[in-house]
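For reference, the entry.
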Amino acid sequence: MILIVDDTPENIISLKKVLEHHNFEVDTASSGEEALKKVLKNEYVLIILDVQMPGMDGFEVAEAISGYSKAKETAIIFLSAVNTENKFITKGYSSGGLDYITKPVDMDILLLKVKTFYRIYEQSRKLIEIQKELLNEIEFRKQAERKKDEFISIASHELKTPLTSVKGYMQLLERNLERGDIATVKRHLDKAQIQMEKLNDLIADLLDISKIESGKLKFNKKFFDINVLLDSVIEIIHQSNPDFKILKKGTVEKEIYADEARIEQVVINFLTNAIKYSPGTNEVHINLEGLGENIYLGVRDFGIGIDKEMQKHVFDKFYRVEETAIRFQGLGIGLYISAEIIRRHSGEIGVKSQSGQGSEFYFKLPVNAGPEKE
């Protein structure tokens, strides 16, 4: 918007008419004092300012405007019929003006100058936007780099823990074999096997991340009964967590077309997280429901829950809830992989939770997912 400041109504009317005819938005002020009030309230691309005015003259108005942080970058063109000497023109520039036009005004020249300032304004605005985008990109990359470094540190620790345990059990096995204590050997072998399975799961997750990043995560889709899949998963989880009750609620009559192994991977991730983040409880619910051509599967725990603000990030790569990161092990990639699997099945994944009242992680899938979504 352009602000015309002149104490002569005829001048304001003629300038306003010409500028509006060329599609410029125009505001007016008949004194320096009125102009300053308007500058405080509104944003202007350009101010066309008469020098000779009663009260505050144009130079004083320009100097006052240059002191406003909001308006100090606003372009000012001075208009004057009297002060055309170099010293007055110089004063205009030193007061904050960018141009100086003498009266009577040549409208063609004024329009060219106005268009030039508008073009400069647009270019400056675009440059500022680009600068903001670049700064945001730099900050995003810094955060990504920090998360990557943190992930490498966590991954190294997580991989080292089962390896150290296996090494310890192997040393114990060697000693007990020499003594012929077969019962203790068997017990240590079972514990070593558990640690090897943990290590295998960690490596599998890391490989999945690599496949997702390179676009090589493949799916083998076929029709299968999700009720049977859930019964199998419950049995697997129960073997390693015999004290936990897993209650399945609801059934789905139709077979679904999806990658059975990958859907099983998501359900196992939901269940292991539900058990991990529910200390002091011993029950988890699986809610299964048919929704027309879709299915809903939710895993409900009664554990620590998740704050609303953190729920936005739980499916982000490498994200670990700060309050729980120290108390619970994990790479922070299981839910990210699960989200990618569901997304590639054209499904929806989410969480319903309140801090201290447990969580329900869920996904919705079309019964026939069709080809995977890129």
Q: What stands out?
A: The chain has three domains: 2-105, 144-214, 221-366. The first strand starts at residue 2 and ends at 5.
